[in-house]
Amino acid sequence: MPPQEGKVFKYLRNKIPKIDGLRVINLTLEGDITFHFFANKRDGRKVKDALNELVEKRHLGNITFAPGKIALRQNPTLLIKEVRVNQKKPAVRCGDDFILSCTALGSPHMSFRWFKDGMVVNETIALRNIWTKQMKTDVSDQYMSLLGVKSADALDEGRYTCQVTDWGIEQCKTIDLEVIPPPAVKVMPMTITVEKVRLERNTY
Predict the structure, then answer these.
(1) How far apart are CA 162 and CA 204, in angstroms?
(2) What gap in Å lies between CA 100 and CA 12, rounded to an integer?
(3) Confidence band, pLDDT 50/70/90 cuts, at residue 51
(4) Do 103 and 78 meet the contact criterion of CB atoms below 8 Å apart?
(5) In this structure, what is the dihedral angle of CA atoms 142, 152, 127, 123, given to the nearest 10 degrees?
(6) What is 79-180's CATH number?
(7) Fewest CB within a 10 Å sphere: which of 92, 111, 124, 130?
(8) pLDDT of 135 above 70
């Protein structure tokens, strides 16, 4: 941790013992600083009061703070809620399209990665017709990643893992997908029974 960050972290740690992982993520030419750290949600007010007090002091060692507005944004700690497929069961018929979805709570900085049987799914080099998409849901602080596959075949069966990373925290959740083969149609050849009839010629 750089010296300046260390001083701010130590100051806040004395005010809020359960604060952790403080780091500077942005510094503008105008002198605006964006911090990121982990703390209990109920300590949000304490954090804001401590930062206001820091600005009022104007100095922390060799760091000078100019009067300004402090904005505090709270995001929940990363939590993967579910991984599911758009079917009633984790099974899809051979030849059908399917979509896997991974839903997680966290910050807008979270990133998603998909794995199939332990191998990274990369739609840019895949020979299959697949796609991925990341979006924000209607629920606050909730995001979703989609993995779509066109025309499922037997090779698509297996274990799919969604890996989500958010501010150094990583979580994974898996789903086992079954691909149902097409029904086997057995055509039985028609049996023709030919009865040999012996014709006898009668002489009258």
Answers:
(1) 95
(2) 42
(3) confident
(4) no
(5) 0
(6) 2.60.40.10
(7) 124
(8) yes
What tens digit of pLDDT does each residue of 65-111 get?
A: 777 777 788 889 899 999 999 998 999 999 999 999 999 999 999 99
Q: What are 119's two structure tokens?
A: 């191998």
What mean pLDDT comes out for the span 131-146? 96
Residue 151 corresponds to which tokens in the numbers above? 């025309």
- 30 pairs with which residues across the strands? none
In degrees, rounded to 5, the angle at the alpha carbon of residue 22 between the alpha carbons of residues 19 and 23 is 170
**pLDDT level of residue 198 (50, 70, 90 thresholds):** low
Tell which residue, 53, 161, 151, has the closest CA to residue 94.
Answer: 151
If we measure between CA atoms, which residue out of 175, 37, 172, 163 comes closest to residue 111?
A: 163
Dist CA 23 CA 21 (whole Å):
6
Between CA 123 and CA 131 the distance in angstroms is 6
* pLDDT at position 193 over 80: no
Domain extents in the chain: 3-64, 79-180
